[in-house]
Amino acid sequence: MLNDLTRLKDLWGGVSDIVDRWLEERRELLVKYCDLSEIHDFDSANRGHGDKLQSFCEVMVDYVSVGHFEVYEQLAKEAKAFSDSAGLKAGADLVDKIQPSTESVLDFNDKYLETDDLDSLAEDLSLIGEVLEQRFESEDKMIEVLHNAHLEQLQNSSSASA
Predict the structure, then answer these.
(1) Which CATH class is domain 2-161?
(2) Are 123 and 13 in contact (CB under 8 A)?
(3) What is the pTM of this model?
(4) What does the CA dihedral 23, 71, 127, 61 come to, rounded to 10 degrees?
């Protein structure tokens, strides 16, 4: 029983670190988004505008990639370790809900990697901001369902074995 508890703590602690790093990347993404949002007249001749846009796109694509290929996978593994079939189902539903935002992020990135035309950037930024906000809400629910829900179980196990 103690070995199981240690194993679960190791798994949970690792997932917490992954989630913490990912949420820090989210903060960085939001800072870059706000930096771009403060520009009212985008000018493709202004090197700073292009650099800020490039940086934002890089961070956004990295954030989305880490979510799909690291965080979601680790959250699902944790739920499996706790035999949480309801959490796994809810997590899968949330991934399905998040998927369209991934496509929007990649479309935005592709569009602005291929063009210096920034005429529609303000409007596109507003739209991608809404997409990201919805995505963050779904991701927060996923963390709650697949990670935070098990924190209580882990603490109960820890109390019972003490």
Answers:
(1) mainly alpha
(2) no
(3) 0.83
(4) 90
Q: Which residues contact 57 (CB under 8 A, 6 or more apart)?
A: 108, 109, 112, 113
Domain map of the chain by residue range? 2-161
* Interval 64-90: pLDDT, tens: 999 999 999 988 888 888 888 998 999
Cα(14)–Cα(72) distance, integer angstroms:
13
Cα–Cα dist 112/103, whole Å: 14
DSSP string, 44-102: TT-HHHHHHHHHHHHHHHHHHHHIIIIIHHHHHHHHHHTT-HHHHHHHHHHHHHHHHHH
